[in-house]
Amino acid sequence: MRVASDNPEVVRLVTLIADEVVGAGGYVHPELVVNHEGGSLWLSLPREHNPHLTPRLDRPHPEAPPMLVVPGRLHIPVTNLAWVASDTELAYTADTAHLTSGQQAILDAMVSLFNTIDKVRIVGRSYARHSIGEDPELSALVAEARPGWLESQQPAAAVGGAVAAEQGEQAEQGEPESPAHSVMRSRLRSEMGEGDEGPLGYFMPMIDMLNHHPYGSRYEHTDDGDWLIRVHHPTPTDQVFVRYNKADSFGVALGLGYFEADTRFVSSVACRVGIPDVVEVKVAGVGAARRRLPAPRVSRSDDGLVVRGLVLELPRRDALTQLLAMPLRSLHPDRPAAVVESWAQQLIAGVVAANRDFFTRLEVLCAQDADEFGLRPIFGRVARRQLELLAEWD
């Protein structure tokens, strides 16, 4: 493994973490490169070390070799370490006597590493939850598309990179989250265990340095309790990734503060679509978990139907049509199937039109005063990406 950094402290800390993983029986690919620039860390592996390069980018080859294997006992439970609210540094105050010596060494190294690269300050500038209030017009547009989004960013809702990037249901409102808490929470994995108060978050040594890609490697839990990441290159570059959230490009920008160019679907913004003489449909503007089928959740309201988790992904248009036709058929069971299907098609067309309208307005706004409002360049690129995907529905 090599660390590509001009900062000797970054080299020392990353090497310490890797040595702890290998010393505990884990594995770090010998040709892996840990890259550092500014506040960013990312991993790369020269493509010649991938024996299964393939045009299919959605998933690793089933026989792809391991790139990282991290013993489960090295993952560090950090949810309850009493993290200090700060705009400048990462620190915790809780007792850590329950950690092993290896966990303690990795925890201290990871905290020092993030502080060395000034991660907290950078997150305070780049994460929408911390800086969008400086741009009232953009904030108003986001509130229109994702009602309750700002409330959902409070600590009760932000547990893990995957959760932080998914714009889910509104959460119980708490104190505003500090940039330090955002750094800590964006490095958590919450599916590995349950505590008395819900899922536990864990730091994942080495794996936490992998950036997200919607078609990157998956987390694999081995029979021995280890966590394994396979060699996989979803882009033409040497960079390697893991997939750790299920948001579209808009959701990634809101939750993680950067433009994701490789998503292939749009999670609908909040909108209302009327099917004349049939029903009024409210589409909730929240993110949606990825499934084999984009299965929206439909419920009845006093004035029509409410649809949550509506994903626009062109290859699955027929499936979406059938899924939306079912609740429409329940309203008028005597109508012919072809008529009900046409209603579903009208609903989809209305949702596509509403999303086009929103992202067109977002693109226009973000083309103005980009030097004054730092989030606008990112959201302008997001708007263009979403409009590209929506254009495929013509």
What is the secondary structure topology, with strand pairs?
Blueprint: E1 2-4, H1 8-23, E2 27-28, E3 33-37, E4 40-44, E5 66-70, E6 76-77, H2 101-116, H3 119-126, H4 128-131, H5 136-145, H6 149-152, H7 161-165, H8 179-186, E7 194-195, E8 198-199, E9 202-203, E10 211-217, E11 220-221, E12 227-230, E13 241-242, H9 249-256, E14 266-267, E15 271-275, E16 279-283, E17 297-301, E18 304-308, E19 311-312, H10 317-331, H11 337-366, H12 376-391
Parallel strand pairs: 1-3, 10-13, 16-18
Antiparallel strand pairs: 2-5, 3-4, 5-12, 6-9, 7-8, 11-12, 14-19, 15-16, 17-18
Helix pairs in contact: 1-2, 3-8, 5-11, 10-11, 11-12
Write a concise keyword list for the protein shown above.
2 domains, 17% strand, 19 strands, set domain protein methyltransferase, domain 1, alpha+beta, 4-stranded mixed beta sheet, 394 residues, single chain, 4-stranded antiparallel beta sheet, 12 helices
